[in-house]
DNA sequence: GCCGTTTTCGGCCCGACTGTTTTCAGTCG
């Protein structure tokens, strides 16, 4: 049983408990546990199997530890079955609808016998909901609207797409003279690989003018709510954008508050409480007196902490690290000396070798690697030994002409099903670098897939495992693979893992990057560019490295060319 | 249901907006 499934069961139990009217803090404990499980870098199943004490995890007590063990061992979550006997399990599904929370769902169930989405739709269409106390015609029509949107709701927006929306939107708002500061907060600022919505924070003394400008933006399809200090809109792309206006004196407190994560905020507020302070989005208060709030640094100072980079604010140890003065010195995009994965028009890239090199040179890189596909990927016109040798000759010639950038001869070679690499060692030996990737047989079992990669790593020509999970955000799940075993093997063999910076991949995000770092395996942040424009995705990969607490020293392509060559030689 | 360097009981983050009210409950973030 995967962590995600354990988390889903806990969420479901929390939903049903909440609808039933259980102690809200008990409900919170279950939700909190779900989020701990989701964020765990290790499968809880393994921890149970190894007899580890789950109650040692903060937020998991004796009761939950026992429930997790039973769930993992039997597939049953004690308590959930009992609840499901008393109430229809589909009720938790209704929680997915906006505007519908536990109280209303309970009312709908008790008054109208609603126990599923289908039944909800029927009573709404029959006009029965508007007659219930606390409901009205407005709510009824919104429920119908929500149901119709539900099917295409289930995806989050990729960070790169969000960036494309943010740029123009912020520029549009910033034209208003009344706005003194503007910042995008939320998971966007924490640089998560996907965002659920955008949270824009503005400092202004004239919130009315800001609200008017925001809600009348030409891309706004619908204004969901609009008050004096806060508004929510949906853009034509269906992306939700929340705007919050505060006075300049509160900007730092509000920025901290709206950057989150929620778990981080709760922890910080608790610390404030212990010091007799109260923190809200307007500032830090001692009694009724406001003592800080203009900058984020001020807010952190009040709880005796240095400023914490947003990428770390997940309440996964950053507060303790800050307190003990051991926050990491996170890698910056400017630390990157070269891009080690890109394609040319020889295979499925859009630009020629010369164009790719020129574009990389303009970015100021010291080196790059050309890594076209290998022969197995016929769809992409993959290179066989002969064509690869031609490219090697072309690159040698180019290197003779160029002074300021070194072009490494490489290949993105397929890892075949049996773990062999898709080109003979003789030709791989003529290269400076290999990126080894899986492009076929995604459906293999975890054991088979893992062994396939481990065998490939035994080849001393194996340098970097390309896009290690194979997931495509919102499109394709990661293949089943035991990354922990792979990372361990990489540490022994001197292999590296890629942090693929393609907007739809970003597949060593957050906790996997953390695993890499802890195991002492170097990450290679690479764009996998298929066109000169794609070289600019580097910052997305660097952001994921930062979310994994990585410093310059944890990455391969922050090294000098000489150091790099030493590592590639294994 | 969790947690504890004052606590094994009694707390648990808190403000904004909407819709349905006529002073507030429910929901959200």
TrEMBL record:
Origin superkingdom: Bacteria
GO BP terms: DNA repair
CDD domains in alphabetical order: NT_POLXc, PHP_PolX
Substrates-to-products reaction catalysed: DNA(n) + a 2'-deoxyribonucleoside 5'-triphosphate = DNA(n+1) + diphosphate; a 5'-end 2'-deoxyribose-2'-deoxyribonucleotide-DNA = (2E,4S)-4-hydroxypenten-2-al-5-phosphate + a 5'-end 5'-phospho-2'-deoxyribonucleoside-DNA + H(+); 2'-deoxyribonucleotide-(2'-deoxyribose 5'-phosphate)-2'-deoxyribonucleotide-DNA = a 3'-end 2'-deoxyribonucleotide-(2,3-dehydro-2,3-deoxyribose 5'-phosphate)-DNA + a 5'-end 5'-phospho-2'-deoxyribonucleoside-DNA + H(+)
Keyword set, alphabetical order: DNA damage, DNA repair, DNA replication, DNA synthesis, DNA-directed DNA polymerase, Exonuclease, Hydrolase, Methylation, Nuclease, Nucleotidyltransferase, Sodium, Transferase, Ubl conjugation
Keyword Hydrolase: yes
One GO term describing the cellular component: cytosol
EC nos: 2.7.7.7, 4.2.99.18
Entry cofactors: Mg(2+)
Limits of the Helix-hairpin-helix DNA-binding motif class domain: 52-71, 92-111, 127-146
Domain Polymerase/histidinol phosphatase N-terminal: 338-417
Record carries keyword Nucleotidyltransferase: yes
Domain DNA-directed DNA polymerase X: 1-314
Subcellular location: Cytoplasm
GO molecular function terms listed in the Swiss-Prot or TrEMBL record: class I DNA-(apurinic or apyrimidinic site) endonuclease activity; DNA binding; DNA-directed DNA polymerase activity; exonuclease activity; phosphoric ester hydrolase activity; zinc ion binding
InterPro entries linked: DNA-dir_DNA_pol_X, DNA_pol_B_palm_palm, DNA_pol_lamdba_lyase_dom_sf, DNA_Pol_thumb_sf, DNA_pol_X_beta-like, HHH_MUS81, Hlx-hairpin-Hlx_DNA-bd_motif, NT_sf
General function of this protein: Repair polymerase that plays a key role in base-excision repair. During this process, the damaged base is excised by specific DNA glycosylases, the DNA backbone is nicked at the abasic site by an apurinic/apyrimidic (AP) endonuclease, and POLB removes 5'-deoxyribose-phosphate from the preincised AP site acting as a 5'-deoxyribose-phosphate lyase (5'-dRP lyase); through its DNA polymerase activity, it adds one nucleotide to the 3' end of the arising single-nucleotide gap.
Protein name (database record): DNA polymerase beta
Gene: polX
